[in-house]
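User: For my dataset I need records formatted as: sequence, then structure tokens, nothing else. Please produce one.
Assistant:
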Amino acid sequence: MLRSKPAASAAAIIAGAALALSPAWAQPAPTSAPAPAEAASAEAAISVAESLSAAFRHASSVALRSVVQIRSSQVVQRQVTDPRIDPFGMGIGPRRTQELERRGLGSGFVVSEDGYIITNNHVIADATRLVVVFSDDFEIEAKLVGADPLTDLAVIRIDPAEASGRLVAAKIGDSNGVQVGDWVLAVGSPLELDETVTAGIISATGRRQGIIRDRRRQGYESFLQTDAAINPGNSGGPLVNLRGEVIGINTAIKSTSGGSVGLGFAIPTAIAKNVVDQIIETGQVQRGYLGVQIGTFTPDAAALLGHTDTTVRGAVVTFVEPGSPADEAGMEANDVITEINGVAVRDADDLRLQIAGVRPGQTTVVKALRHEERMTFEVRVGDQRAADAGAPALQEALRTFGFAYAAPEAEALARLRGLPAHLRRGGAAVTRVEDEGPAADAGFEVGDIVLAINNLRVDSPETLGSLLARARGGMRLEFTVATGDGVLQTKVLRVPDRRNR
């Protein structure tokens, strides 16, 4: 039962309030006036802070005009039993098919008044229905134009006539000019909170995390790292500079909790532009092909090759594919590639990324060192897809060695965390070992991850297949392998003589 307070208590409260408002108590405590110099300094600092706030407001307003929320749904089927016969879900009795709808949420931004919208591939992957939601809650269905799992980018499109003037194309900036310390804003719909803007700086550039891949190969990464808060739902939204220009596409976070801890990653527009343009033009992505096996040019590699300047950075060619674009241009093993079209090559991953960004058929200027002599090659870049068509030869090599392989699953890659940094990315997982064969004799087991052969890094199943295809009868191959329990081992296999033909 509720009871009223005694009148005396109410009076005491009123009296206390009156005391608090009496003139004696209402007077502020006497303070000394700030010195003129201190006041001027504070005013100057406040003015600078207000200018930064104004820049944030401007960038936010510019970016928000183009940002949308993307809702995806996927119908999946599963086999269930009758709960009347099987109330505890033990799988008893006849089964029937039940359809379920899985829903996802991400972000995106308009890049054309024709209705094209950029987002992440993982936002729309396997979706049977896509809905774009604008800031005024207007909803419209979208169609997939094309996707590229190897960069985690996708383009969807809505009918511009139905959008009723809501399409405002984002301003695209140049991510190549981004520097560590630059202010940035992340815009999107984290945790279903649409039109959310968070601020931070560029923490690093050129980050590689080994998180983008498709079922067959490692993807292409060179992330912008930021401490602007990025959470689930931000994926596909823009990372913008203080002018409101898009310099990246928010894609991933690194976290032990599932939420932002200040380690966010965005795909730079320098990578996205080439991919998106191709998807809009043709619905697919073509990548350049040089036809070389490479490794990072380290000081140890420099000493091994007799180079006196160990400060040179680049990628050393370990093998040139016969008949490849590199071979036709005159490149040789042990050449050290230092530049592609005037852009410095930092390491093997950087070269791979740069060549992938060249359209097939284009002539590319490659600068290299051969025994410390400067060389220049004009290479007509090939098509990576055409090179991949050589897969039957890899299948033959697979049968010869007696084991099958594929791209490692995420759980398998997690076992590599304790290994040296250069061995943590990619690899090829052993999926089958024949009872009698070279692989079985060498001690290979299902679940092993091949990371290198004769100290040449294996960053994908394609690399492993290429190396195996080139091995000749009698050769001794030392496989650096991470076992199923995460132990690093060397397994030695001698190439069967039957490969000499």
